[in-house]
Amino acid sequence: MPELDATTIDQIATKIFRREATLSDEASKHSIDELLQSFSNLRLRMVQIINGLTLEQINYNPDPDTYSLGEVISHLISAQGNVYNGLLDAAASTLPHIDPIPRGAGAGAEKGLSSQILQERLQKATYDLIAIARQTYDPNSTSQVEIGPFGKTSQKGLLLFQLYHDLDHLRQSQTVRRSPTFPKAVKKDGTLTATTELPPAN
Fold first, then answer.
1. In whole angstroms, what is the distance from residue 42 CA to residue 39 CA?
2. Which pLDDT does position 193 carry in this prediction?
3. In degrees, to the nearest 5, what angle opens at C-alpha 198 toward C-alphas 194 and 199?
4. CA distance linking residue 42 with residue 188, whole number of Å
5. For residue 185, what pLDDT is reported?
6. DSSP track, 51-88
């Protein structure tokens, strides 16, 4: 199977949105290791986007209708609780669920968080989801759980959904960083610092 990079995830998402395939069908073509490696890669790119940014840069909104980097990432962290809980439900696990889970577009978004705090929270959230996925995954399980408008899906289907969600917000964050009005980092002596190079989505 092709690597689960941005191009492959986009192709899969197109098939799913066109009702030509389901999350479970497409996820079944990939191993749990492939899904989790792709997830780790996307989270690493997100960390790279905010690494070293100032509080002003993290909380910058290009316009009233566009989220800041801090809001995007804090939403990403909160929203993954739906997949975390779904993995537990699919495995009929008695481990504690994450509660409450914010609902709706942009739910859980916060402003005022520093780059360091966001990186620490994102890295912990990434570790937690990988850990629970490995702990609960059963290759012989046929159990499925509801995931929003996509209906019922498998454990691996939940992870595939998470990949698309992460990729969508990675691109959203890259757009914010590339905004012509994105604040420049300034040293105490008034000179501009070097801008961190953005990682590619692929």
1. 5
2. 52
3. 140
4. 33
5. 73
6. TT--HHHHT--SSTTS--HHHHHHHHHHHHHHHHHHHH
CA pair distance 138, 163, nearest whole angstrom = 20
What pLDDT, on a 0 to 100 scale, did the predictor assign at position 200?
58
- 6-177: CATH topology is Four Helix Bundle (Hemerythrin (Met), subunit A) (1.20.120)
* Three-state SS letters, 148-174: HHHCEECHHHHHHHHHHHHHHHHHHHH
Task: Write down the pTM of the prediction.
Answer: 0.88
Domain boundaries, the chain: 6-177
Pair of tokens at residue 131: 């850990």
Distance CA 167, CA 180 (A): 22
Could you tell me the mean pLDDT of each successive run of 10 residues in the chain, 202 residues long?
Answer: 86 93 95 96 96 95 93 94 95 89 74 94 97 96 89 95 96 95 70 51 54
* pLDDT reported for residue 73: 95
Angle among Cα 180, 71, 4 to the nearest 5 degrees reads 85
Alpha carbons 167 and 13: distance in angstroms, whole number: 11
Give the number of C-alpha atoms closer than 13 A to the C-alpha of residue 142, restricted to the C-beta side: 0
